[in-house]
Amino acid sequence: MTHEGIPQPLADLLDEFSFLERGERVDYLIEYADQFEPVPERVAVRPFPEERRVKRCESQAYVWAEDTDDGAQKYWFAVENPQGISAMSFCAILDDTISGASLDEVLRIPGDVVFDIYGREVSMGKGEGLLGILTSVQAFAREATGRQGV
Q: In terms of pTM, does the model score above 0.85?
């Protein structure tokens, strides 16, 4: 499976996930959810601003981006629903694999990554929420690209 143009750590993770059975996939995602680190207070404090909230996410996820000195971005997340395991795992995966990647690579990530990670049986509502998290991240990358005049 090739994942041309997307951040290499994410491509590597997608290759890994392509070999996992459903049970292994669930265990892996729970591990990622356990690694989730919420946005630090230096970036945002509760109550989080509504404009940072992911529109279609039932887990009340929020997204922030900080520009880095090398023209990339560091992404931060909050998931307010303590049962939002899928949202927490996806946010942890994105932080782990795309924070620090080039903006161009971030913008090339297709929405299908949600299915590549969670499987085709992911519910429509959950899939929409996860895609909304990715879309929010990409909106920050698009905005930064515009500021940089790229």
A: yes
